[in-house]
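RECORD TYPE: inverse folding
INPUT: structure tokens
STRUCTURE:
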């Protein structure tokens, strides 16, 4: 199984810096959302707007993509 995850608006920050800045709970929430979005895309479903927002992706702009 291949999982594709998009990291958006991180401006060159490393994963270690993200974990320290946001806290471990937020990090795991972000990873859960990335997994949910990847699973939805892999099965041809539209990801939940909340998961997209947590990853820093605008759901309205994402929905304009014709093929995912």
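DESIGNED SEQUENCE:
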């Amino acid at each position: 199984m291949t999982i594709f995850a998009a990291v958006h608006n991180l401006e060159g920050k490393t994963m270690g810096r993200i974990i320290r800045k946001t806290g471990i709970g937020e990090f795991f929430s972000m990873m859960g959302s990335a997994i949910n979005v990847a699973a939805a895309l892999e099965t041809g479903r539209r990801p939940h707007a909340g998961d997209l927002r947590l990853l820093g992706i605008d759901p309205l702009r994402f929905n304009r993509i014709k093929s995912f």
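NOTES: The chain has one domain: 15-63.
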